[in-house]
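Researcher: Re-running this chain for the archive, since the previous output was lost when a drive failed. Same request as before.
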Amino acid sequence: MPRPLDLGRLPDAFDEKDFYLEEFRGRSVLIAVAPAVTAARPALGGLATTVADLVRNGTRVLLWWPAGGPPAERRLLAALARARALDRGRGVRRRPLPLVRQADGATADAAALRAALWAQLRRGRLCVLAVRDGAGFPAGVAALAVTLRVPKLVLVDEHGGLSSGTQRLSFVDEHVLETVLREGEAEWSGLGHRRALLSAVRAAIAGGVEAVNVCRLDGLAEELFTYEGSGTLFTQGDYCRVAPLGIDDFAQAERLLDRGQREGLLKPRSPAEIAEVLAGGFGATICSRHLAGVAGLLTAPYAGERAGEIVGLYTITRFKGEGLGSRLVRELLEQAARQGLRYVFACAVDEHAQQFFEREGFARVGPEAVPAAKWKGYDARRRARVSVFRYDLAGARDG
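Model: Regenerated structure tokens:
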């Protein structure tokens, strides 16, 4: 019987914040705070801490700030200093504050602005762009993101992410955004008051920005450093690509499997078993960088029956409504057909997972309808709770 996976012995097996910091390292992020947010004089500790985490991570951070005069600037810079986001050096060659002032939101002299911002970013990876009266939010901010060619734009808005009724829209791709912005659609969806912001998001994405996050100030860290997020993530084009896992994907995929096991959704597996899942696994990648789902097709134990088992199917909560699980399963079924398998099966204890497999065309069957090898050494308590689902492949021939 395989030794159960000791999750406690895995060093940093799943640290969402570290995962995202690794993704941001060496890249640039433009964070823009709406004038309505700063006008309320919010606590700035969370913003400063998030900026400091990014800066120490090696991320270049451009903070677009609606200038409210010297007192407001001092308050922001003091918060950044307390969070140790400012690296000003010491002695007579002490670096100046990373602050660039702009008369308005216009970016007419784009080359000069880029030069001024880079002069600050290259010194300490942080630049505060203080814009008089906050002119240019959100359209001017989107234009700036395109001008600077940053991959990530974060719009901190007093309303936070989008919602439909009581449900937050955690993810919107380019095609859905276009639909919402058709004449009357935003108003019909209850998003008429967000049209200007949505138009700015569309302009940023059309101009080459890879992803735009919209969130509240108090949810900034959660939006940037967790899978679930707190606002809405907008992305370019077809957000999802499903492909076999490469070895450089294995670390991310193992983190997802670890999370699924911690939540009790996936069967605990030994390191050797996890390696087997990864070796034959597929991943769903968001924005060409973000592994948001994983699944494997296990065939070796069932070769005599020409059967395959879907194992380790797990998708990030934020993207559960975006069809990632369906895409992964369809790809695995196509892979099984190419291998000449007769059928594919899956086991699930979670009710939502069981409903998912039924929606995908799997039939609920008894344990005797799948290879006996599946149950050798299987945990008796888990077996009492597990349901089995089988998908017979069309055109499969016995022989």
